[in-house]
Structures are given as structure tokens and as C-alpha cells.
């Protein structure tokens, strides 16, 4: 099982992920010094 499949499994079971697209956007903005 790869990371994507694991994420899908968590989603199906209703387990909240602590790192999502919003956090990724924040990190990318920070890395680009925006």
C-alpha cells in the first residue's frame, strides 16, 4: 500500500488527516517567500 492508497483508506474510514491541501499551500507559499 502506497501513501496515496493509505490516504484513501483513512478517508473512507473517516479519519481526519492532519496535513491537507491548505497546509501544503501554506508551506509552498512560505517556501516561495510569498
Q: Can you characterise this structure?
A:
- The chain is mostly helical and 34 residues long.
- The protein has one domain (1-34).
- 62% of the residues lie in helices and 0% in strands.
- The protein has 2 helices and no strands.
- It has helices at residues 3-12, 21-31.
- The protein is elongated and about 35 Å long.
- The N and C termini lie far apart (35 Å).
- The mean pLDDT is 88.
Distance between the termini: 35 Å
The Cα radius of gyration reads 13 Å
Low-confidence stretches: none
Number of domains: 1
Helical stretch tally: 2
N-to-C SSE series? HH
- Net shape: elongated
Please indicate the percent range of residues in DSSP E strands (runs of 2 or more): under 5%
Report on the biggest sheet. none
Query: How many strands?
Result: 0
By helix and strand content, what is the structural category?
Answer: mainly alpha
Average per-residue pLDDT, rounded, comes to 88
Helix content: 55-70%
Q: Main attributes?
A:
62% helix; 34 residues; 0% strand; mainly alpha; 2 helices
Summarize the structure.
This protein has one domain. The chain is built from 2 helices and no strands. The N and C termini lie far apart (35 Å).
